[in-house]
Amino acid sequence: MKANQIHIRFFASLREAVGCAELVQPLSEACQAADLLTMLANRKELAAVDFAERNLLVAINQQLAGWQDWVTPGDEVAFFPPVTGG
Amino acid sequence: MMSTRINCQVQHDDFDVAAVYQTLQQTPLCGAVVLFVGLVRQQFDGQLQALELEHYPQMTEKAMRKIAQEACERFDIHALEVIHRVGVLAPQDQIVLVGAAAPHRSDAFAAAQFLMDFLKNQVPIWKKVHVLEQGAPQAQWVDIKQSDIQAAARWQFQTT
C-alpha cells in the first residue's frame, strides 16, 4: 500500500451493497474514521450506497475501532455490519 | 504465574471434538474441562438449506486470541481451545468449539460462556442463511440479536 492512500475493505451485506470487496481511497493526511466513510459516500460510483442508513462497524488495521479514531495514510480500514458469528 | 495455553483457529474443515478434549485433558493441575460446540440449527420450518459464514481472514484469529487472553485474565484457566469454521455448512454441522481446562469447574464453565458471548460480538464473522421459499432458493444475511448484545454486555458489570 502506498503512503498516500488507504486500503478499504467491505464485508458481508455492505460488500454486496457496494459491489466490491476492496478499493483504494486516496488520503494525504490523517483523518477520523467517520470522515473516511464520508469521503467514500461522496464518491460518484458509490452514490447509490446507503452508508448513513446502515449500522456499520469499523476496523483499523484489523482492530475494531471507534468512529473518532484516527486513520493514517497506509492503513487498512474495513467497514462491515454487526458481526454474527459464534 | 503459570501461562495459559491458547489455541485459536479459523478453518473450513470440520473439527474432532474428541481430539480437542484429549489435549485439554492432559493439562497439568486441571480437574475440570468444559467443552461447548455450536451447531447449525435447522430453522424456517425445515427449509434451511445451508449456512454460509464469511470472515475477515487477517482479523478473525487476532480478534479470537484477544478474547481468549481476556478470558485468561478473568478466570483461573490453564488451557483454552477456540475453533470457528467458515464457508458453507449444512444443518447439524459443527460451527464453533470453545474448550477450557481449569483447576475447578466454575472457572471452566465461566470461561466457556465468556468466550461464546464475545465471539458473537467481537469477531468479524457474518452468517448468511440459504433457504427454500416455496421451492425457490433465497439467501439472507443474519441480523444481530439483541439477546447476544446483552449477553456480552453483562460481563462488564461483573467482577470475578
Give a brief outline of the structure:
The complex is a heterodimer of chains A (86) and B (160). Chain A has helices at residues 12-18, 33-41; strands at 5-10, 22-26, 31-32, 57-60, 63-65, 70-71, 76-80.
Count of individual beta strands of chain B: 8
Question: What is the gyration radius of chain B calculated from CA atoms?
Answer: 17 Å
User: Which pair of protein chains has the largest interface, and what are the residue counts?
Assistant: A-B, 16 and 28 residues
CATH topology of chain A: Ubiquitin-like (UB roll)
The CATH superfamily title of chain A: Beta-grasp domain
| CATH class division of chain A | Alpha Beta
Record the strand order, biggest sheet of chain B.
1-4-6-2
Taken in chain order, the helices and strands of chain B follow as EHEEHEEEHEEH
Largest sheet of chain A: 5 strands, mixed
- Strand-pairing-aware structural class of chain A: alpha+beta
Please specify the SSE layout and strand pairing.
The complex is a heterodimer of chains A (86) and B (160).
Chain A: E1 5-10, H1 12-18, E2 22-26, E3 31-32, H2 33-41, E4 57-60, E5 63-65, E6 70-71, E7 76-80
Parallel strand pairs in A: 1-7
Antiparallel strand pairs in A: 1-2, 3-6, 4-5, 4-7
Chain B: E1 5-11, H1 17-25, E2 32-39, E3 48-55, H2 57-74, E4 79-85, E5 87-89, E6 94-102, H3 105-122, E7 125-133, E8 136-141, H4 146-153
